[in-house]
Task: inverse folding
């Protein structure tokens, strides 16, 4: 690790607008600092600022940025009314890590691209303008949707995929005040600025995540990976489907580890809503999701894998009435 | 800088010359508590598992300064050679190790994990998120953050099941 100075904030105000880098659970930032991928010269510890409660917010919930992943997944309201969120969190990392990982830190976790971690490799995300070692290199973990010729990394997290499907919003505050960003718009596609993972501006802090009223229906988070636990997704699918009279009434679909952001499939949702479930329809909806998909060699398998996982999840979600 | 750390019930004042010291290095090198092991130093193996206020965590992915004022439990606080904790005795009974390097982390993790189960925390193996069952699949899933290079997993699962069923 490079040297840094450490301060502990007692209130969010002490962290907001500060030039110091926020540290919460530390489970991603310290890992990256040990690899010297991240080299902040100042750390601001936000573990004692509060923001550690899950509270009712009208029909929805407000989740403080410092709520630990374990507490959020075990929260009674979340388990009962937003099970997709519990499922997605529980599919990630390990018991030890979830006990430290926070809601804000989880959203901000960085890509697992091997070359991003290797400070000797060119990487536009780590060092803008240096090139991208993944293009033409090993791409097993990489994007099939929304990539650019500058960066083909994925956002690796699970929780945010559920938040995207659930239409959550992220409440942030900076020196210019507070604002809310839709979870679907929080992470960015790389374009020509892959160094910016999210819409969070310098000096801004995540205060909370807000969930709208419960969706009901069947909620499924399916994560496909090299081993059943403690591994990042190759492809994940978050789905919430409400049935009425044999037809899909509400449909929410988002995919993880296929793009630099959780990939919400609005067009496919619209195509499915109001229809009776069928294998053929699921297949056509997958065509829509995969319309612009591109593999880079090692990750070509993700294209059929997304299709098959999506079909299987939709079949399960609509099962009783099929 | 000086921090105060309660470890296994005893209060310590620690002088750190650099904030880069991890909680793991503080325990091992400053306090001489070498029961907690360093495997990967990157959160991937669980050898460094300790408890913070009873909750398990990886000591390698946390800075010692972040724990000023905190209470930590290490394997040395779980039991001693003279007075083994039920989980330690169960690991011996079931031969839940070979080289033993992962064992302190396994035992601390398993002890805290049983507490999480008692509190009804769900896992991805829980068919009903509101009513997790105590099954071998649940044990395996909940212990996935502790790797064993000697692959003693079957005996580790046996030991944990046995310790959980033993009267406290
Ligand atoms: C071995 C291992 C396996 C893992 N497996 C998975 C997995 O399968 N699925 C998955 O989703 N994740 C996985 N993770 C990642 C884990 O979920 C993240 O490390 C964790 O969620 C990060 O949260 P944190 O609080 O520790 O963040 P920190 O490490 O403290 O911070 C991460 C980033 O967020 C910023 N930040 C933190 N809080 C705020 C805030 N309130 N406002 C603004 N910025 C903030 C920090 O500045 C930093 O840039 C894994 C991690 C490890 C080490
Ligand atoms: S894919 Fe992105 S993160 Fe990976 S090497 Fe290329 S620029 Fe860097
Ligand atoms: S040494 Fe901490 S998890 Fe491996
Ligand atoms: S007993 Fe050798 S690593 Fe587990």
Result:
């Amino acid at each position: 690790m490079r040297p840094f100075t450490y301060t502990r904030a007692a209130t969010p105000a002490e962290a907001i607008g500060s030039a110091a880098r926020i540290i919460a659970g530390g489970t991603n930032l310290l890992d990256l600092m040990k690899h010297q991928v991240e080299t902040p010269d100042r750390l601001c510890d936000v573990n004692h600022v509060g923001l550690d409660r899950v509270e009712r917010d009208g029909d929805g919930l407000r989740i403080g940025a410092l709520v630990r992943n374990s507490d959020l997944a075990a929260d009674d309201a979340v388990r009962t009314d937003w099970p997709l969120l519990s499922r997605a969190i529980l599919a990630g990392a390990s018991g030890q890590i979830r006990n430290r990982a926070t809601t804000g830190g989880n959203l901000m976790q960085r890509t697992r691209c091997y070359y991003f971690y290797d400070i000797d490799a060119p990487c536009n995300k780590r060092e803008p303008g240096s090139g991208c070692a993944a293009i033409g290199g090993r791409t097993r973990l990489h994007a099939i949707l929304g990539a650019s010729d500058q960066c083909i990394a994925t956002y690796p997290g699970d929780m945010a995929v559920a938040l995207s499907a659930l239409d959550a919003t992220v409440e942030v505050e900076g020196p210019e005040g507070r604002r809310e960003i839709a979870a679907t718009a929080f992470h960015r596609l790389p374009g020509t600025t892959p160094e910016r993972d999210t819409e969070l501006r310098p000096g801004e802090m995540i205060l909370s995540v807000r969930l709208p009223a419960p969706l009901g229906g069947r909620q499924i988070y399916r994560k496909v990976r090299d081993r059943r636990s403690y591994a990042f997704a190759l492809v994940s699918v978050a789905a919430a489907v409400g049935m009425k009279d044999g037809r899909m009434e509400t449909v929410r679909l988002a995919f993880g580890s296929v793009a630099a952001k959780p990939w919400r499939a609005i067009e496919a949702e619209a195509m499915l809503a109001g229809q009776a479930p069928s294998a053929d329809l699921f297949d056509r909806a997958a065509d829509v999701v995969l319309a612009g998909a591109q593999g880079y060699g090692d990750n070509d398998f993700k294209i059929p894998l997304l299709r098959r996982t999506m079909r299987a999840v939709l079949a399960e979600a609509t099962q009783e009435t099929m | 800088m000086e921090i105060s750390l309660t470890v296994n019930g005893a209060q310590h004042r620690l002088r750190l010359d650099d904030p880069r010291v991890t909680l793991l290095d503080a325990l091992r090198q400053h306090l001489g508590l070498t029961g907690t092991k360093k495997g990967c130093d990157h959160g991937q193996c669980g050898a460094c598992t300790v408890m913070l206020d009873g909750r398990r965590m990886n000591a390698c992915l946390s800075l010692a300064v972040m724990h000023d004022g905190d209470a930590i439990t290490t394997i040395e606080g779980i039991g001693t050679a003279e007075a083994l904790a039920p989980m330690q005795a169960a690991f011996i009974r079931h031969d839940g190790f070979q080289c033993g390097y992962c064992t302190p982390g396994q035992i601390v993790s398993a002890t805290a994990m049983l507490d999480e189960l008692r509190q009804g925390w769900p896992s991805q193996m829980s068919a009903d998120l509101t009513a997790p069952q105590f099954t071998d699949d649940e044990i395996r899933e909940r212990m996935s953050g502790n790797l064993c290079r000697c692959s003693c997993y079957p005996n580790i699962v046996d030991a944990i099941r046995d310790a959980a069923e033993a009267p406290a």
Observations:
- The longest helix of chain B spans residues 103-118.
- Chain B has a mean pLDDT of 97.
- The first strand of chain B starts at residue 2 and ends at 7.
